[in-house]
Amino acid sequence: MAWLTAEIIQAIGVAFATVITAWTAHQAREVRRLRERVEELEQQQQDERQRFRAAAKVIRQLRRYADDLCDAMRRAGLVPPPSPVVIPPELAEEI
Which portions of this protein are annotated as coiled-coil regions (predicted)? Predict the structure, then answer.
């Protein structure tokens, strides 16, 4: 252990510090990249939510319009055709 001098110990410490600094910088870049991605995905989710709400509103309006047409047909003595549209259960609450 005669080769383990103060200079060598100091050099090893500097090498470890350099590696740790480089790793920390890499991790910081990765965290920043992931935060940006999370923000992007959150914005996409908000946009999709708004589109979904708008689509559900249009579907409700179209269903009301179809109901009005069926009522008008019944008042005219006609039998309206059955609806070809089946609302999936996962959308039933929204529409």
Answer: 24-58
